[in-house]
């Protein structure tokens, strides 16, 4: 998308900016390959199988939240493809992960999504494992003629690492570290202290679309003017600044709250901006005729109000205080980030059907008890008071696309609008009347993502070279 800037009667077109940033001399951002987005990569089961073999089982995957495993014995189960993985806190400072499959006859051991146990015990014949996966007890062990050690029959481990309250797993022992995988992203996001945020909503919608269709949708802003008309009065997608990283990660930075430059500047602050100003004790009337000054005023006022409320913005730049930042971590999550709130989104492929996936959203916020004076109901970010703080863990709401389209469930109006289109995109991939996507300049992050999908699938992928596995 090119937007028009009128200078002395001349119209200038301004594109989005895309900056290719290497992690190191060896870990470069451009895989030097242009993927063709033909329909088979969205519909073909062999393609899906290669993704499983070369991506999902080889890379670091966001699996859940440290806040779900705070106490010794707490666990959660992460299902991906046909695998099910248990993540436990087995000691005060130690987290373990292992395949959720009993070494007696292969039963799935834990079927709850999360909870707390003293031991990991298979319900079928009672084989019992310690919280670190070590086999501890076999009922009637003398019945087994075959001799084996407990070590041999312990649960098969999976690599696990945590960062900023987020748990990542990796099914390949030889893979390089999470730190190598995320590079400078870690330092950039450390000021947000996601580990201090609290889960206030957890939702999953089932979709009849390939997982990459979901990724594609959130990797471009070309569609925003068309299916999200409400964005015209709070974000400037036309002028987004994008960072393109190795392994398929990207970031987009979108100015907010501002008027989309494709539209004329209103005299008075539109509703969204007025709500934002009111929440921060600023009077929208003071901005009549001065709407372009609102973003800067909000950046300053948040720091003032933040001090009063005990929320510290000192680690953040002005842009981070106001703008919309989206980090796309390959392959399974993207995060929309504000100092006060984190949205994690994750499409997950179906275990056997390339035409299906599930799509989850975790909403985390700074807890109210971190704010000293919350009595006036002030909001540092519009919409943040829409979420009730659950006493225990936020319930995992699971629903269908129809529930969203028919208004029974919502992931916010914007995401609902996206969800509306995703199944239709997949239907198009099966049409005799369509062969391959054609992308414009502003869809460069989609192209980057797919270039890297192809790199991961190739024999000599960068990840395999860095990690030293075949
Ligand atoms: S399958 Fe688990 S104890 Fe038999
Ligand atoms: Fe969208």
Can you walk through the features of this model?
The structure is a single chain. The protein is α+β, with helices and mostly antiparallel strands and 470 residues long. It contains 13 helices and 21 strands. The chain has helices at 40-43, 45-56, 178-182, 185-189, 211-218, 224-227, 271-279, 294-309, 318-322, 401-405, 413-429, 444-457, 462-467, and strands at 3-7, 10-14, 17-20, 61-65, 74-80, 83-91, 94-99, 114-116, 120-121, 128-129, 135-137, 159-163, 166-170, 198-207, 236-244, 250-255, 324-329, 333-337, 341-349, 357-365, 396-400. The longest helix has 17 residues, at 413-429. The two termini are 41 Å apart. Bound molecules: FE2/S2 (inorganic) cluster (FES) and fe (ii) ion. Residues 217, 223, 228, 418 line the site of fe (ii) ion.
Name of the CATH class of the largest domain: Alpha Beta
Strand content: 25-35%
The ligands bound in this entry are: FE2/S2 (inorganic) cluster, fe (ii) ion
As a whole number of angstroms, the C-alpha radius of gyration is 24 Å
Query: What average pLDDT do the residues reach?
Result: 92
Question: Helix count?
Answer: 13
CATH topology of the largest domain: Naphthalene 1,2-dioxygenase Alpha Subunit, Chain A, domain 1
With strands numbered from the N-terminus, the spatial order across the biggest sheet is 3-15-16-17-18-19-20-14-21
CATH architecture of the largest domain: Alpha-Beta Complex
Task: Write down how many β-strands occur, each being a DSSP E stretch of 2 or more residues.
Answer: 21
Give the low-confidence spans. Answer: 1-9
CATH-wise, what's the superfamily of the largest domain? Naphthalene 1,2-dioxygenase Alpha Subunit, Chain A, domain 1
Helix content bin: 10-25%
Distance between the termini: 41 Å
Based on Cα principal axes, name the global outline: globular
Structural class: alpha+beta
> Describe the biggest sheet?
9 strands, mixed
Number of domains: 2
């Amino acid at each position: 998308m090119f937007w028009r800037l009128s200078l002395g009667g001349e119209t200038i077109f301004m594109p989005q900016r895309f900056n290719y940033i290497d992690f190191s001399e060896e870990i470069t951002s451009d895989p030097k390959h242009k993927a063709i987005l033909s329909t088979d990569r969205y519909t073909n089961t062999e393609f899906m199988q290669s993704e499983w073999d070369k991506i999902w089982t080889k890379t670091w995957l966001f699996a859940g939240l440290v806040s779900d495993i705070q106490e010794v014995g707490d666990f959660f189960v992460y299902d991906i493809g046909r695998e099910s993985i248990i993540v436990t806190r087995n000691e005060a400072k130690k987290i373990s992960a292992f395949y959720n499959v009993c070494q007696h006859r292969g039963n799935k051991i834990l079927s709850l999504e999360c909870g707390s146990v003293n031991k990991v015990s298979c319900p079928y014949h009672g084989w019992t494992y310690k919280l670190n996966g070590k086999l501890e007890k076999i009922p009637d062990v003398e019945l087994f003629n075959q001799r084996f050690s407990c070590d041999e029959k312990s649960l098969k481990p999976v690599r696990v690492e945590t960062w900023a309250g987020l748990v990542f797993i990796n099914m390949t022992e030889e893979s390089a570290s999470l730190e190598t995988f995320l590079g400078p992203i870690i330092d950039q996001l450390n000021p947000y202290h996601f580990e201090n945020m609290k889960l206030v909503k957890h939702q999953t919608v089932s979709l009849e679309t390939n997982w990459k269709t979901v990724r594609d949708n959130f990797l471009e802003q070309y569609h925003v003017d068309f299916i999200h008309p409400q964005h015209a009065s709070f974000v400037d997608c036309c002028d987004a600044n994008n960072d393109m990283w190795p392994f398929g990660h990207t970031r987009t930075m979108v100015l907010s709250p501002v008027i989309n430059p494709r539209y004329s500047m209103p005299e008075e602050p539109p509703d969204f901006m007025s709500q934002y100003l009111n929440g921060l004790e600023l009077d929208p009337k003071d901005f009549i005729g001065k709407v372009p000054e609102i973003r800067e005023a909000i950046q300053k006022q948040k720091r003032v109000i933040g001090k009063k409320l005990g929320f510290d913005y000192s680690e953040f730049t002005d842009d981070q205080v106001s703008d919309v930042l989206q980090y796309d971590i390959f392959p399974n999550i993207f995060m929309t980030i504000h100092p006060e709130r984190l949205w994690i989104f994750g499409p997950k492929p179906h275990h056997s059907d390339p035409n299906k996936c599930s799509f989850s959203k975790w909403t985390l916020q700074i807890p109210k008890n971190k704010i000293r004076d919350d009595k006036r109901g002030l909001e540092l970010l519009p919409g943040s008071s829409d979420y009730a703080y659950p006493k225990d863990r936020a319930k995992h709401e699971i629903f269908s696309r129809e529930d969203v389209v028919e208004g029974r469930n919502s992931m916010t109006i914007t995401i609902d609008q996206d969800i509306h289109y995703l199944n239709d995109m997949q239907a198009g991939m099966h049409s005799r009347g369509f062969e391959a996507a054609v992308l414009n300049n502003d869809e460069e992050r989609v192209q980057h993502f797919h270039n890297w999908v192809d790199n991961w699938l190739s024999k000599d992928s960068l990840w395999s070279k860095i990690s030293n596995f075949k």
